[in-house]
Design brief:
Elements lengths: L3 H5 L10 H4 L10 E6 L15 H10 L4 E3 L7 E3 L2 E6 L5 E6 L13 H14 L5 H4 L8 H4 E5 L2 E5 L6 H8 L9 H5 L9 H4 L9 E7 L3 E6 L11 E6 L3 H9 L5 E2 L4 H8 L5 E5 L3 E7 L9 H10 L2 H7 L5 E3 L21 H11 L6 E7 L4 H13 L4 E7 L1 H9 L5 E7 L6 H8 L13 H4 L5 H10 L5 H18 L2 E7 L1 E5 L3 E2 L16 E2 L1
Parallel strand pairs: 1-10, 1-11, 15-16, 15-17
Antiparallel strand pairs: 2-3, 4-5, 5-7, 6-7, 8-9, 9-10, 11-19, 12-19, 13-17, 13-18, 14-18, 20-21
Helix pairs in contact: 12-14, 17-19, 17-20, 19-20
Length: about 525
C-alpha cells in the first residue's frame, strides 16, 4: 500500500498512514516530489528487453538512455542521446556510433560501447515480446556477438546482415528496447542464464534521470533521482499512483494530492478546462484504438464478416458522444502524424450493407461472440457502444472486461475471439504499424514475429511481402507510396477495425509546469517538471 510516509522518504521514523486517510486532505504534494495519478495496470516488466506496454515504456524512458531518440522538433528525424554522432558505410550495412562520455549509470560508472553492445546482444538473445524490433534486421543468438560490437570504449558498430533503410534502423533504435543497461550490474543478477531478466522486471539499471525504487503492481511506481544523471532532475522523487477512476484522478488534482493526471474523460476534461489554474498538454503519440478479430474463429475467417463489422460501427457517434476532444476518428493502421498516414475515413455506419455482407458470408441471422476489453474508462463505454452497434446487425457480443495486463496476456496467447484494445507505435517509422498489423510470415506457435497480425491468426502473404519490400526501399517517396497501398488493402481485408486515434492528454495542477508528452508514448519525460 502506498503511504504518505513512502511519498516523503522510505524508512522515515513516523507512523505509517494509509494513503486513503491523507489522499483528500493534503493542500499540495510534498516539495521535491512529483506525484502523478494515472491507470498503470498494464505493467508486466520494466526490463527494456521485455517492456512492451505503455506505462513501463514511459517509465523506462526516464530511467535509461538510448543511442538516439525521436526528435521532438521534427518527428521525421531522430536526435542524438548517448550517441554523439554516427556514420553509415557506402553499402548501408554498417552504422558506426561515436558515444558521448557524459552519461553515467546510477552506480556512477560512465556508459561505454561495451554496455551498448551488451544491451543489444542481450535483447537478441532473450528475444522477448519486443525482441523482433532488433532481430528483424537479421540478428540472431549465433551472430549477434560478431555483428553488434564495441570497437573501443567510445565506438559501437552495428553490422546489418542485409541492407535496410537507415532511417528505419535508427527509428528502431529509438524504441524502448534500445535502452542501454549497465552490463556489470545486470550480470551480477544473472539467474540461470536469464541475463538479469528476473531482476530487471522490478528495478532499473540505466543512466537516465531517474531509477526505479519500488513497484507495487496495480498500486504505485516510485522513482528516485539518479545521483549521477547528466542533468539533475528538478524533483528528486516521482510517485505514480494507480488511479483507475478518472473522477478520482480529478479529485486528487483538485485537493492538491496529485500534480498531474492522465486519464480524464471528455466530461471531466471540460470541467478541468474551466479551472484557469490548470494547464493542459496534448499529444497524438502515434496511437490507435482498434477491434481485433481472431481469424481462428470460423466467422472471422471470412472476409465478408470482417468487412461487415467495419460498416456496422458508428465511428462518429462513439467519438462525438463518448470521447469528444480526446479521440478522433481514424480508420487506418497509420495514425495521423506518422509518415505516410492516409487521412480519409471511408467507413460510415451502414446497417443494411453490414447485414447483406453477413448474409453473403452465410450468417443471415448473425452469431454470438465474446469481446475482451480493458475494464477502465473510456474502454468500458466504447465496448458497450460497439456491442450495441453489432447487435443491430444480429451479432450478440458478450463483454469480458479485465485489467489491461490480463487482456494483453490473453491476446498474446491467441485465446481471444474479439478484443478492443490500443496500439502505440514502437518507433516513428511507418514500418512499426505496418509490420504489426500486416506481417505474419509464419502463423505457427513457433513464429519469430508474434505481433498483432500473428496474434489474430491473420495470414496474408501479399501484405507480408509488401511490408518486407518497404523496409529495404531506399527511395523515400516510393516507400511512402507503398505504405499507402498497404493501408488500402488492410482496410479491405484485414481483421482489424480501426476506430479512432487517442489524443493523449495530461492536466497539470496549480503551479505545475514542464510536463511534456513526447511524439511517441515512450518518450515522455519527468525531469523538467516544476512546481511552484
Amino acid at each position: 500500500m502506498l503511504t504518505r510516509r513512502t511519498l516523503l522518504a522510505a524508512g522515515a521514523a513516523s507512523a505509517i498512514v494509509p494513503i486513503e486517510a491523507t489522499w483528500h486532505t493534503a493542500a499540495a504534494t510534498p516539495k521535491g516530489i512529483f506525484v502523478m495519478a494515472k491507470q498503470i495496470d498494464d505493467i508486466v516488466s520494466f526490463d527494456p528487453a521485455q517492456a512492451y506496454e505503455f506505462t513501463n515504456g514511459e517509465v523506462d524512458a526516464n530511467c535509461y538512455s538510448r543511442l538516439v531518440r525521436p526528435d521532438s522538433k521534427d518527428n521525421s528525424q531522430v536526435a542524438p542521446d548517448l550517441a554523439a554522432s554516427w556514420d553509415v558505410s557506402k553499402d548501408g550495412k554498417e552504422i558506426t556510433f561515436k558515444l558521448k562520455k557524459t552519461h553515467k549509470f546510477a552506480t556512477g560508472r560512465v556508459v561505454n560501447a561495451h554496455d551498448v553492445a551488451f544491451s543489444f546482444q542481450r535483447a537478441v538473445k532473450l528475444n522477448l515480446t519486443p525482441g523482433f524490433i532488433v532481430t528483424q534486421f537479421g540478428f540472431t543468438k549465433d551472430n549477434c556477438e560478431q555483428l553488434l560490437t564495441a570497437v573501443d570504449d567510445s565506438t559501437f558498430k552495428m553490422t546489418l546482415p542485409k541492407v535496410q533503410a537507415t532511417s528505419f534502423v535508427l527509428f528502431c533504435l529509438s524504441a524502448t528496447i534500445g535502452s542501454i543497461v549497465d552490463r556489470e550490474t545486470v550480470m551480477k543478477h544473472d539467474a540461470g542464464g536469464d541475463l538479469g531478466n528476473k531482476w530487471l522486471t522490478s528495478t532499473t539499471a540505466g543512466s537516465g534521470s531517474y531509477q526505479l525504487t519500488k513497484w507495487a503492481a496495480s498500486d504505485s511506481v516510485i522513482l528516485d533521482a539518479n545521483p549521477h544523471a547528466l542533468k539533475k532532475p528538478v524533483n528528486h522523487r516521482v510517485v505514480i499512483r494507480h488511479t483507475p477512476e478518472p473522477s478520482a484522478q480529478l479529485l486528487a488534482l483538485e485537493k492538491g494530492d496529485a500534480d498531474v493526471v492522465r486519464d480524464l474523460t471528455s466530461e471531466l476534461l471540460t470541467k478541468a478546462k474551466a479551472n484557469k489554474a490548470y494547464h493542459i498538454s496534448k499529444s497524438g503519440q502515434g496511437s490507435i484504438t482498434y477491434l481485433g478479430l481472431n481469424c481462428s474463429v470460423p466467422q472471422f475467417a471470412k472476409i465478408e464478416v470482417r468487412e461487415a463489422f467495419k460498416w456496422a460501427i458508428d465511428y462518429d457517434g462513439i467519438v462525438n458522444n463518448i470521447v469528444p476532444n480526446i479521440y478522433e476518428v481514424s480508420q487506418s493502421f497509420l495514425p495521423v502524424g506518422l509518415p505516410g498516414a492516409l487521412k480519409d475515413n471511408p467507413f460510415k455506419r451502414d446497417v443494411a450493407k453490414a447485414k447483406a455482407l453477413l448474409a453473403k458470408a452465410g450468417y443471415p441471422n448473425g452469431f454470438e461472440i465474446t469481446m475482451d476489453h480493458f475494464n477502465t474508462a473510456p474502454y468500458v463505454d466504447i465496448a458497450q457502444a460497439v456491442q450495441a452497434n453489432l447487435k443491430d446487425i444480429g451479432v450478440t457480443v458478450n463483454l469480458l472486461p479485465a485489467e489491461k495486463k490480463q487482456v494483453y496476456t490473453k491476446m498474446r496467447a491467441r485465446t481471444h475471439q474479439m478484443l478492443l484494445s490500443g496500439w502505440g507505435t514502437d518507433y516513428f517509422d511507418p514500418n512499426s504499424n505496418a509490420q504489426a498489423f500486416c506481417a505474419n510470415p509464419d502463423d505457427s506457435d513457433g513464429s519469430k514475429l508474434k505481433i498483432l497480425a500473428w496474434r489474430c491468426h491473420y495470414f496474408d502473404p501479399e501484405l507480408t511481402q509488401m511490408v518486407e519490400d518497404a523496409v529495404v526501399e531506399l527511395d523515400a517517396k516510393k516507400r511512402l507510396a507503398m505504405y499507402g497501398k498497404m493501408q488500402e488493402l488492410a482496410r479491405e481485408r484485414s481483421p482489424f477495425v480501426f476506430l479512432m486515434q487517442p489524443i493523449a492528454t495530461a492536466v497539470m495542477g496549480k503551479g505545475v509546469s514542464g510536463f511534456v508528452m513526447g511524439p511517441v508514448f515512450d518518450d515522455t519525460k519527468y525531469a523538467e517538471v516544476k512546481k511552484a
